[in-house]
Write a structure and sequence with these properties.
The strands form 2 sheets. Strands 1-4-3-2 form a 4-stranded mixed sheet, covered by helices on one side. A 4-stranded mixed sheet has the order 5-8-7-6, covered by helices on one side. It starts with 7 loop residues before the first strand and ends with a strand. The protein is globular. Strand 3 and strand 4 form a beta hairpin. The chain has a single domain, classed as 2,3-Dihydroxybiphenyl 1,2-Dioxygenase, domain 1 (Roll), CATH 3.10.180. Helices cover 15% and strands 39% of the residues. It has 124 residues and is an alpha/beta fold. It comes from Erythrobacter crassostreae. This is Bleomycin resistance protein.
Length: 124
């Protein structure tokens, strides 16, 4: 198995967080009172998000974020678009559709219900 790193993000409520990310194909691989791990995709090439409890988090002042580098950005964007998450620049949750940025990368932005910013980046 190659070396990997996974983002650790806050969650005010694990069930709410799990339900939110399930809309985009994430499945719970582990959950107890102190930690939750969500997976998306097949083993060996899957995206992983890990969550710790933070019940007093103010989502409007959250500065937590992570990048998910994906082989198929359009597939997850189809799920985001089909979900109840609104497109916009304010409110929680929300998303911004993908666009090619000055870096040459195509990036979409998803802000979850706890205010964490997830950058969805198309692998080149």
């Amino acid at each position: 198995m190659p070396d990997t790193a996974t983002p650790n993000l806050p969650s005010r409520d694990f069930d709410t967080t799990e339900d939110f990310y399930a809309q985009f194909g994430f499945e719970c691989g582990y959950k107890d009172g102190g930690w939750m791990i969500l997976y998306r995709g097949p083993k060996g090439s899957r995206a992983v998000l890990e969550f710790f409890p933070y019940p007093d988090l103010d989502p409007k002042s959250s500065s937590f974020s992570a990048c998910l580098r994906l082989d198929d950005l359009p597939a997850i964007m189809a799920q985001v678009t089909a979900s109840n998450v609104p497109q916009g620049h304010i409110g929680l949750p929300r998303f911004h559709p993908p666009q090619k940025e000055a870096s040459g990368l195509t990036i979409a932005y998803l802000v979850d219900c706890d205010g964490s910013l997830i950058r969805l980046i198309q692998n080149n």
